[in-house]
Amino acid sequence: MPSHLGAGHASPPAKRRLRSQARPARCVRVFGHCGGLGADAERELRKIPFFVRGKARRNTERFANENGVATITIETLYDAKAHFAR
């Protein structure tokens, strides 16, 4: 009688991605603002702990959209931080 655990059946091999096939950077669309994060701002954003990084990104994108900023710079990050710290 075959086992209900599926013993004896080979599972399909796990697919691995090569670095050359890595996924493109995820673009988070918040309030219509997408892709305007500068390289320096992206590096600065990576310094923020992972568990609050998403909230910081969303707040910064929201701040940039409300103030008509096309490209988010380090200054925009700090301005948004000051704005939402109130």
How is this fold's topology laid out?
Elements: H1 39-46, H2 50-66, H3 74-84
Helix pairs in contact: 1-3, 2-3
Sheet of most strands: none
Helices and strands: which structural class? mainly alpha
Portion of residues in beta strands equals under 5%
Overall number of strands: 0
What is the count of DSSP helices, taking H or I runs of 4+ residues? 3
Uncertain ranges: 23-32
State Rg: 21 Å
Overall form: elongated
Quaternary structure classification:
single chain
Helix content: 40-55%
Spatial gap, N to C terminus: 67 Å
Q: Give me the strand/helix succession.
A: HHH
Average pLDDT taken over every residue: 77
Overview of the molecule:
- Helices cover 42% and strands 0% of the residues.
- With 86 residues, the chain is mostly helical.
- The longest helix is centred in the C-terminal third of the chain and has 17 residues, at 50-66.
- It is elongated.
- The N and C termini lie far apart (67 Å).
